Amino acid sequence: KENVDSRHNRGRGGETTRFHTVSVAQPVRFSRKCPTGWHHYEGTASCYRVYLNGENYWDAVQTCQRVNGSLATFTADQELRFILAQEWDLEEKTFVRKDQRRFWVGYQYVITNRNHSLEGHWEVAYKGSSEVFLPPDPIFGTAMSENENVLCAQLQCFHFPTLRHHGLHSWYAENCYEKSSFLCKRSQTCVDIKDNIVDEGYYFTPKGNDPCLSCTCHNGEPEMCVAALCERPQGCQQYRKDPKECCKFTCLDP
Question: CB burial class (10 A; 0-12, 13-18, 19+) of residue 181?
Fold first, then answer.
């Protein structure tokens, strides 16, 4: 404030005290809680990413585990519709037709009878939530072996927007050693302003518009946040604040 009530704010020399503030506290809007390249779905508080490098099912499992996730399973139709509606970055060396995309997901088809037609049932590959839904009867892949009693799940979705937004898809039971793109799923996490993943309980500055915010990571959310206010740079009329460093300025004066 430049004009302060002089009756209450006189300095020792009788001069009016002056305050200069660069910024004031604003409502904080945090950005998504997923690392770059992952898609966030609020309904499950989860992050999803398609990996384009073709890997067999077992290698895909290990890749997902290395990023603290697993091959995706789905808890409700809404979650599956969210996945089908996404425009994944798929300019890769595709393993099927260009208008169709197949991803390994976290289900396996256990064959129980090989008489006139294959009979069996879906299982979740890695036991987790009891609320996971199981796919309908699959289309059987072409690379099947007569000795295989366990096949792995591929979710096929479509590249064209009209088909994608109508939720059209198919489930395939495929030889687990075929190579395919795959879909990983992980819990949302805290991500700082420089896109680093933050562990539970640690201080960090969330992604957003305020580099002077310090929060505690709790269950993937920034909590107990404290903001700092910066004094403007002395002797500089025009300046720019660094968007990722607190109280760091660039003077723009000639």
Answer: buried
Asked whether 94 and 88 are in contact (CB, 8 A), the reply is: no
90 and 202 share a domain?
Answer: no
Tokens coding 233: 């740079």
Alpha-carbon distance of 146 to 188, in angstroms, equals 40
The residue type at 204 = F
User: Which of 146, 172, 187 is the last residue before a domain boundary?
Assistant: 187
| CB 197 within 8 Å of CB 185 | no
Write out pLDDT tens, residues 143-162: 666 677 889 999 988 665 66
Alpha-carbon distance values, 179 to 56, 73, 150 (Å): 4, 19, 16
Q: What angle do CA 50, 54, 58 make, to 5 degrees?
A: 90
Displacement of CA 3 from its chain's centroid (Å): 48
Number of structural domains, the chain? 2
Tens digits of residue pLDDT in 169-188: 888 889 999 999 999 998 87
What is the value of pTM for the model shown?
Answer: 0.62
**What's the Cα-to-Cα distance from 174 to each of 56, 60, 114, 148, rounded to whole Å?**
10, 14, 15, 10
